[in-house]
Amino acid sequence: METTSPVERLLRGVALTLVVVFFMFPIVWIFLMSFQTNETILRIPPSVVFSPTLENYAALITGKLQTASGTLDIAFMRNLGNSVLLSVASVAVALLLGVPAAYAFARHKFKGSEDIAFTLLSFRFAPPLLVLLPLTQYFQWLGLSNTYFGLIWIYQLICLPLILWIVRGYFEDISADVEYAYRIAGHSWFSTFRKIALPLAGPGIAAAGLLAFIFAWNNFVFALVLASADKQPVTVGALAFVTASGIQYGQIAAAIVLSITPTLALALYAQRYLVEGLSLGAVKG
Amino acid sequence: MASVTHSSARRSRFRISKRVLPYVLSLPALLVCIGILIPFFTAVIYSFQRYRLSQPWARQFNWGDNYLNFFTDPGFWNTLKISLLYAGVTVTLELLLGLGIALLLQRRSTVNNFISIMLLLPLMTAPALAALMWKLMTNPGFGILSYLASLIGLENFRWASSPDTALLTVVLVDIWVYTPFIMILLLAGLRSLPTQPFEAAALDGVPRSFVFFRITLPMLTPYILTATLFRLLDSIQQFDIIYAMTQGGPGDTLTVFQVEAYLNFFQSTNVGRSAALLIILWAITYILSNIFIKNWLRLRERARGEA
Amino acid sequence: MTTLQLKNIVKRYKSQTVLDDLSLDVAGGERLVLFGPSGSGKTVLLRLIAGVIEPDAGRVLIGGEDMTDVDAEHRGIGMAFQNFALFPHMSAFDNIASALTSRKSSKDTIAAGVHKVSKLLKIDHVLSHHPKALSNGQKQRTALARALVGSPPLLLLDDPLRNVDAKLRFEMRLELPRLLAAQGATVIYVTQDYKEAMALGDRIAVMAHGRIRQIGTPAEIYNAPADIEIARLFGDPTINLLEVVPQRGPDGAFVELSDMRLRLPGFGDEIVGKQCVLGLRPETIAFAEAASQGAIPVTVEAETPLNEKTVTLGLTARGREILVSRPAGTPGPVAGPAHIAVDGRTAFLFDKATGRRILPSELASKRNGEAA
To answer: Touching check for A101 and chain B: CB below 8 Å?
Structure first.
């Protein structure tokens, strides 16, 4: 578009390089660290070239760590399993409940629909602890403390509004005439929902589900407040890991790598959808 | 010629279920709403009570006392100050950095696209885990950043352990995680701008600074405002990064609203104060978000109408 | 084929009344055209008949049965939309087949039905394509095929030729009546093009503001329009409208045109002195010799040759414009002074205040009025 001088192009290149280094460096460093023995890690100056080892990952996966003072049990795999369970289940439930609700909101402008939508949206910006702290007591009272069931329901607070908001927009984008045509052709509203609305909104539903998964996986404070050690996901588990004594830095790094890989991989795989979802459709072409 | 038969029984059954259908479908959304509102109002009640978990028998209404006490409580003003400072610094720096990077990546090219995808990654990292990563990087024993700091003469830079530099450290983490968010929004905005004004300016030989300040920036304003508001609302209630890094310490240097409320609830078991703090925070975010939502819904309606 | 009756249909959106106490009676096998400008409520009415929208009041009867509370999928209707409304994620074949798959017929029956209709509409070579690979004309035919394939007794066509280019529209205007006649269904056809309305309809219902202003055969609409607006909408070039005040004469009422008297047979004293608008269709005016009886002098200003006719613009003695239309090829004056002859019996007289046509007195008592 505009003609750039070589100096300018050089400056631009330098700036971009610095930016990329800044944002990529921590991930790269942790990744490298996860393949280093404790001895390599503690060496000063830090070594770029080293012989990698898999012992950190092995310790995490087997759950046992051999140290000078004996064997230590590491329950990190349990945290990973919790993350998977909570995120997948929460998104599945949120999709099951949210997609039909989004359809109802999109197609039937009934009394109260705008109010419900507004409430859900305005609570996206509200402090989570406001709801969570009283919930600790309600959960105890209901017997839901530290249960997967209770946690999945609370995770709906993260996933459901997101799915409702994004998917409703996709349903609204489908011309009503197309659905009318299928109805008139002799099909029930449910058949129309299944065969016409769902496929046409498919990309949006996938985007919403992906984003909900990432948000659920990355969540910290919900599980911190409402879960105990055996049900905590990796976000809380990793912190406990770090503050525990006797854990080696290599394993901490490996734990962090295992914790962030799923979301990073998903993000790379589906990056196109993320822009729209992140801005809640505020950025529409 | 096809003929269609109907039974009146089938007719009435469909009509009833059709009326009820939207409500049935959106029931879960309604339940979630209720699930939010009940604890919310409970918290409101708590904020008007003198309530300590360690002394449940002494629980009683003290009405506005919790709020009034804040005026004379240096701890509250500290919380307010740190929260506003944190939000202000992070959002400003992220805005400037995000805008700069978006401008650098504006042109569509394989390299630029690749870089913008890569820059997504910090945003996709759990903020609590990002804090842990930076905690390791700033570890005085082996942390790469401590090492680099010592190279430029800053021996024993205490990063998050020192009251002087703790804020700097968490701000750094916040910038690392959230700048890509602003970058993505502004990049999408930049790429969606119409090309004619810029082509015309190029033809007329208008200097680039003029183009930037008088054409680009004004057209980007809705995106900038959206990004700023989103981030402000999130930043003022930041919990994950700060708690994971220092749990509010050292001392009370990082006791922003949600961290302070958390500590009040679980450490000092002071439910009343905790609730009151959160209600104040909620009020701030509610006012700000309402302004934003009202305008945004209006813009969306207008865009829908034109479509 | 089946009958359709609408009784006192009312439909409101927010505070606006879109359909205002509308009633309609369509005979079995009839082709009824709903004609009117946008905003007149035609599209809403069609969707109401189809059953995808509910009326706020009134009943819809199809084949004599009250279908007001019946869902669209049970009404036995075929509908073609203005914007085609094809399913983008399905092939043309599946689009058309959708009207048959709801009946749980065998795959062979469905395939046979789809091929039969698509051959009729000449799209059987693009059946495997998806809508985005089809041209507008092919999309339109696919939409039509989908409406026809189930042989529904009632067909609703919502301006299907609107989004199709002019040449194809012209072809379809010839093809459609043949197709629809072969189907034998009762057809409700919506259009904003008066030529289409006159070519396709057994009867035309002219709608405006949610009401039917006039309903009748094309000839009735053209030769006996209920008001100025309808007279103006039907006819090309547009009807000449001149403000006049009729006077009493020895052999009936007359109006003055170019200082000459134009007798209006059939009208009596009731129009004398009334503010009226005279309507003269350009093709009912002919050029005449100066000496012939009743010749009215005009000054020819310009002449426009159109394909099948030539239109001349003339000015009366008082400077009012009159368009005269004659078949192409017939001779006529090109410029300067000329004379025209007008048969007073073909003239319309409208009440200037209400716009409604004033019926010749002998007929007024016989008629029981047009549809409201």
So the answer is: yes
